[in-house]
Design goal:
This protein is mainly α and 279 residues long. The chain is 69% helix and 4% strand. Strands 1-2 form a two-stranded antiparallel ribbon. The chain starts with 10 loop residues before the first helix and ends with a helix.
Length: 279
């Protein structure tokens, strides 16, 4: 195995681990914030939807992106869809902590900051805020048993989509070509976080962690918090262990190739979840 302990002390690992943990922490915070502050009619957080609803939504979203990338040559449409999704997540995040019109001020401030700087650090923070909020709402509407079904499906789907059909890799490359990054961007050095997002590409010194790798464990952790915070805590510890294992597998490759991130992360989540019942 081509792995050295010093890899744990590199900037890209520390930065990536921070973003991963911070997303889960924020998702729980948004969940409790929405439960306390948001109008029940606007953000229903007590129902339990079928796992198959989310599976169908994933298939439809993937098919839509693939068709757009194949038949629509201008990047404008996919950029608009991406912007709407991010804005929705930021609005949910603001709703957890602010009342009207403070939510609007928060959103304007975030967008102004984003358009002024447009660098890797701001991009990643916006992604983390939006994904944590969207994950909180999904997790709040799932019983842990339903979430487990979704996690197992997502792990299998991620493996097949990267190693078998390879459509996930093609979709990612198509999005990157259009400068749409549905991922956090991880530079090799601290100076990389200040580079303009338009200058990022897989051919430069950057790595990428998909939004699904952030959202899936966050959704499950929020769902587990409906049992207890202890269950959510051990599930979060398991997800971090799974993430670290994923990092070891990735950097141990002789030639760096795209890897499905969800199988080891989800395995860690499930082991942490099971361990919580042994205490």
């Amino acid at each position: 195995m081509n792995f050295k302990i010093r890899y744990f002390f590199t900037f890209n690992f520390i930065f990536e681990l921070f973003l991963f943990i911070f997303t889960q922490y924020l998702a729980l915070g948004v969940f409790f914030g929405l439960t306390k502050n948001a109008p029940a009619a606007a953000f229903p957080l007590s129902s339990s939807y079928s796992a198959w609803f989310f599976v169908l939504a994933l298939f439809l979203a993937t098919a839509m992106v693939i068709l757009i990338l194949k038949y629509v040559k201008t990047p404008r449409l996919i950029q608009i869809i991406y912007a709407v999704a991010i804005l929705d997540g930021l609005w949910l995040f603001g709703s957890a902590y602010f009342n009207w019109p403070e939510i609007l001020y928060f959103l304007i401030a975030i967008l102004a900051f984003y358009f002024i700087y447009q660098n890797v650090l701001v991009h990643d923070m916006v992604i983390v805020l939006a994904i944590s909020a969207i994950s909180a709402v999904f997790g709040a509407n799932l019983a842990p048993s339903q979430a487990i079904i979704i996690l197992i499906f997502l792990a299998a789907y991620d493996f097949i989509a990267v190693y078998k059909t390879k459509h996930m890799v093609s979709m990612f490359r198509g999005l990157v070509e259009k400068k749409v990054f549905l991922s956090v961007v991880v530079p090799q050095t601290i100076g990389g976080i200040f580079k303009r997002i338009r200058d990022v590409s897989p051919q430069t010194e950057f790595m990428f962690l998909g939004t699904g790798d952030l959202a899936a464990p966050a959704i499950f952790i929020v769902a587990c918090s409906r049992i207890s915070l202890v269950t959510a805590f051990y599930t979060a510890i398991g997800s971090v262990a799974g993430f670290i294992f994923l990092f070891i597998l990735f950097v141990s490759q002789k030639e760096k190739q795209p890897m499905p991130g969800l199988p080891p992360i989800i395995l860690g989540c499930l082991l942490g979840y099971l361990f919580s019942f042994l205490k």
